[in-house]
Fold this sequence. Notes:
2 strands; two-stranded antiparallel sheet
Amino acid sequence: MAYDKKKSQQVSIRIPHDLWRKIKAHYVAQGIKRLSKNAMIVMILDKWMIEQHPKERIGDGLVRLGKMTREQAENAYQIQKEKYNFTKRFGEIAVELMYINRATLDEYLGDA
């Protein structure tokens, strides 16, 4: 059981046994001998979220939200790679090309 502060109630979380053992072994190897069950659950969920949801590229996120087309994102990536050798940020290129405006970029980066 874990405590959900927002709902002020306990919630039941089912953790796959193999994942539970992996995480526990990882922290024991780092010298952490004892963890509370809640601390272990938080660490397991953090690790699972990272494994299941890798960081999204800005262009992919903007396409997913409908702020740019896939073609626009690919074009901006291509320019970023070929013209700037990745020295200029994707968002700056997309704004210069007028695919998005600065407010849209700032809003996306604030939510990311």
